[in-house]
Amino acid sequence: MKWLNRVGIFAVLFSACGLAAQAQGKRKVIIDQDAAGPGGTDMQSILALVNSPDTDVLGITVLTGDAWRDEEVQHTLRLMEIIGRTDIPVVPGAVFPLVSSKEYIEKWESFYGKLKYKGAWNFARGHAVHGPYEIPSMPEGQSALKASTEDAAHFLVRMVRQYPHEITIYAGGPMTDLALAIALDPQFAELSKELIVMGGSINPQTDDPEFALSPSHEFNFWMDPEASHAVLHAHWLRVVLTTVDISVKTRMEKDLIEQIRKSPARAAQYVAKYAEANFLWDELAAVAWLDPTIITKWQKLYVDVDIDHGAGYGNTLVWAVGRQPGLGEVVVEVQDDLDKAKFYKEFVELLSRPTPGARSAAND
């Protein structure tokens, strides 16, 4: 009997060690996102990263971008509740850019012309455009969860200090949270493992009027140009950039939505209910980080953002290696082309699978 007890103890210990080793082997990531919802590119990229069996999502930091921060926080909390990942902290980030503002851009437009898309400042889906602290009705239902009481910048710094050189920062929105983290701790960037960014536009081949006539204008870099400039001058060990140029080669077509709908998983049913046709902006950045073989062509460039407050304020600036100004810019791995069929296949699989580590999920 004693022998059997010892065998049982060893079995439990072996299982516990195995689970610990499995957790240690996962890729640590913090998702910094302007989490407009329900559905859409922001939420679908979060789902791709959370649903991967290879990731350990340490937290989701949320800042104003496509929508205002407080509304986005509630959508993120509700998403985590629906898929049963209430253990992932949702951390409020920046409400406003470092320098720019809605009022300033309105004055800028009187000199240089109207901008089509300004995120929270001029766009809302399913309700009227509102102020920064108003939260409209939630189509997916109200969440019972509470956001973290820590702010995003301090959370980011604390995590990279706790896990130096282990954490990937995935940035799918404006750069304000990251710039604030760098201001708090100048070693923040170099203590991170890498930075994965959806942002910037160089010369996209598209008839979309938002980009065809303004090829170097891209929302995430533009929303807070000073923050983007600061982040692109920080001492990252590696920066990967998914630009408009490659994103517009993708599309969330009805066929993809219908493939995802076939899965009974809660994440899949959420996507099937709230997805809509659009470019797969943030999703491509997320899935290509999980599987870089999706990307078939790369180039290394130096990238910056125009902060001169003239007609090009917020536009993407790029130089070939050897032609950069040499004012502290970092070299960036820019994605140029992809295996679209492989990307779609892996994207559908990620959003269709059961969520790893899911606990009891709330009702829809």
Mean pLDDT: 93
- Strand % is 15-25%
Radius of gyration from the alpha-carbon trace, in angstroms: 21 Å
Sequence of strands across the biggest β-sheet: 3-2-1-4-5-6-9-7-8
The poorly predicted ranges are 1-21
Number of strands: 9
Apparent shape = globular
**What is the string of helix and strand elements?**
HEHEHEHHEHHEHHHEHHHHEEEH
Number of helices: 15
Structural class: alpha/beta
Give the CA-CA distance, first to last residue. Answer: 49 Å
Helix content percent band = 40-55%
For the biggest sheet, the summary is:
9 strands, mixed
Q: What does this protein structure show overall?
A:
The protein has 364 residues and is α/β, with parallel strands linked by helices. It is 40% helix and 15% strand. The longest helix is centred in the N-terminal third of the chain and has 24 residues. It starts with a helix and ends in a 12-residue tail after the last helix.
